[in-house]
Specification:
Layout lengths: L1 H6 L11 H4 L13 H4 L4 H9 L12 H5 L38 H11 L12 E10 L18 E10 L14 E9 L2 E8 L12 H8 L15 H8 L5 H7 L14 E2 L4 E4 L5 E10 L8 H10 L3 H11 L5 E9 L1 H6 L19 E10 L4 H6 L12 E3 L3 H17 L51 H4 L25 H8 L3 H17 L3 H11 L4 H11 L39 E5 L6 H13 L3 E6 L3 E4 L5 E4 L1 E2 L10 E4 L3 H8 L2 H12 L4 E3 L4 H7 L5 E2 L7 E3 L5 H13 L10
Parallel strand pairs: 11-12, 11-16, 12-15, 16-17, 17-19, 18-19
Antiparallel strand pairs: 1-2, 1-9, 2-3, 3-4, 5-7, 6-7, 6-10, 7-8, 8-9, 13-14
The structure holds CIS-heme D hydroxychlorin gamma-spirolactone 17R, 18S.
The site of CIS-heme D hydroxychlorin gamma-spirolactone 17R, 18S (HDE) has 25 residues, from strand 2, strand 3, strand 4 and helix 14.
Function: Decomposes hydrogen peroxide into water and oxygen; serves to protect cells from the toxic effects of hydrogen peroxide.
Family: Belongs to the catalase family. HPII subfamily.
GO biological process, one term: hydrogen peroxide catabolic process
Length: 752
Amino acid sequence: GQQLAAAMPFNPNKPAEYGDASRTPQPGATAEPSTPAATGSTSTETIASSKLGAGVPPVGENPTVGPLDRVRVDGGGQRLTTNQGVPIADNQHSLKIGLRGPTAMEDFILREKITHFDHERIPERVVHARGSAAHGYFESYQDLSAVTRASLFAQPGKRTPVFTRFSTVAGERGSSDTVRDVRGFAVKFYTDEGNWDLVGNNMPVFFIQDAMKFPDLVHSVKPEPHHAMPQASSAHDTFWDFVSLMPESTHMLLWQMSDRAIPRSYRTMQGFGVHTFRLVNAAGASVFCKFHWTPLQGTHSLVWDEAAKLVGADPDYHRRDLWEAIDSGNFPEYELALQIFTEEQAESFAFDVLDPTKIVPEELVPLTPVGKMVLNRNPDNFFAETEQVAFCTAHIVPGIDFSNDPLLQGRIHSYLDTQISRLGGPNFHEIPVNSPVAQVHNNQRDGMHRQAIHRGRVNYEPNSLAGGCPFQAGMKSGFTSFPQTISEDKVRGNPELFADHYSQARLFFNSQSPVEQAHIAAAFRFELTRVQTPAVRERVLATLANVNPVLAGSVAGGLGMDVPAPLPLATDRPLHEYEPSPALSLLSRPGETGIRTRKVAVLVANGVDGAMVRAIYSSLLEDGAVPRVVSSQLGKVKTSDGATLDVEITLEAGPSVLYDAVVVPDGEAAITILSRDAHAQDFVREQYRHCKPILVVGAGAALLKHAGVPPALPDGSADPALIGTEGGALAPALAAFKTALAGHRSFARETD
Ligand code: HDE
């Protein structure tokens, strides 16, 4: 690659024209930042500044910075120009015939500006429109060449750049983050053998078994077509009408009604490839595989009342959380684990591994950790990167292959197809965030928005005029499909085991803690309360009767209905009895990051004990938490020791739902003021209702009383997350508070 770059006759003033050469990856790894030698230029700065009129781009340590430097633009110190590079003298006034006259048709500057603006929007994704993303890298733990020749798993410590986008599914691009929904978890690996997109969700199963049903599913959950309501919500008739007629969705519905559908953060949810995939090694031998991402931050969710209020308090709650965590150096990390099993093993399972409504329980096939992903850089530009990134399940690399899961098979077509209309043509792979770090050479030509300037007269293969180049890579290094033997009739239909719709729904429900089970029942109740058609409610209850009598009874009770007879089963086979799988409970993965990045409000007013606030604040900071001084109004408060404190945010702008915990410090005068403020009362009431840790010092107890919250006892002896200090010292109370904060919530007190 370096030789190629050196040999190329190129205009040194426009080095980025030879993008392919400047993109040449370092031999053996994609992880190194680009060096001047590899870019074919004297310095990376020249590339950005000469072609794009930019200043010097900051070249960070993140290996993904390199590949995108060639297109980074920064107007710092530059004059304003048109898109043709013509300097603009006046960007405030259109060209008029006299100061009070009409605008001249010839005002090409105005017309270019307005025309561009008129076309600023592109269609949003038909699903997963609302999302947030980050750059980072994947680091392999070990050499997996025994099972796959995929180059990113070739050796321990090997780093591959990634771009990862999280999303909700149903809502439009501007909808809220904390709605009840499945979350997308899509990772683009820029491997040195081409891009691999692992386009997963935060739940390991799906609603339907066959791609044929996807448009119907999506139509049913999207806003109803006559009045375009409701936004970003499954709680309406058409969705429940569809799924109640689709018993295969039962397992997924339980996941969707669980707290998984209201994650605390994109940093605290798992990701799953959902389908069974294949791994293929260099000898051509293949095993089946399921992909699991597990956050090192642990798996944590919101509670429903909080999620609903967050829609108003901060519609960007998850976007902001991800951005701030990365911005502050708290890089989210996720471990990738594989479930590897052979085809023979798969045949012995009680379910079909090609059925995407089924998991492979971890008790049956344990997880093998193979590496971790670190997200360490926010995008420079939301549209250019997060919006224009194009994930395709068809993007796989040598060593990874598809299974015959009929849902996956349909997806292989859908993603490429949708990008063509969403991104305006077949050259979306040239958009910087989509372009591989591996070199691209083929005879595909032309099309809308072509960026590459292909040289020479040969655009076909085989050829002799270009020495046969670019040439076929051959079986050894090129991608080859696993040669599965198939000899069957062409049919429309499902394998027999697909008809078991309830065994794993039962497994999931039975594996949840009592709190999680209660939340699932409450979510069904809420959604079905919004459903207006009694027959639809009834059919859902008849479905749930096949899952668990307590669940069905609880939901029916909540709707003021009786549990109807269960829906008839679609199979004569007896349902499979699974042992509960503790790994399916969110509570089984508390995480390793303690109180890092947890947000804590410290409520203050004039007369607060300033020394105490400072002590608590710095102690929390020291452990990586994010304390905030919150009060009724901005400015400074006078502390009891005659000093002042800066208020960081008001109770109005920073209500309870934005914080993981609250501290009410001592100071009688301050508590008298706060007790009169409805915002402060709501604040502690909601912290209590949402099961969050509360630390109350001295006079602070009066605020709880005013708000109707039970008293906080020293060291939390009644409720381990409701901690007071009456008569006691601050230090042990603060320690108990931190323990409670690391434990997230105290569900024992829940009364919703
Ligand atoms: Fe998708 N899905 N999907 N999906 N999906 C899209 O592609 C589709 C499915 C998933 O952050 C679309 O670029 C079909 C399962 C994610 O950009 C579209 C079927 C899973 C994202 C599409 C499915 C997913 C999408 C819309 C059934 C989890 C967002 C815009 C056969 C394993 C990626 C786009 C991003 C996006 C089609 C089912 C995950 C239309 C036809 C199952 C995370 O192509």
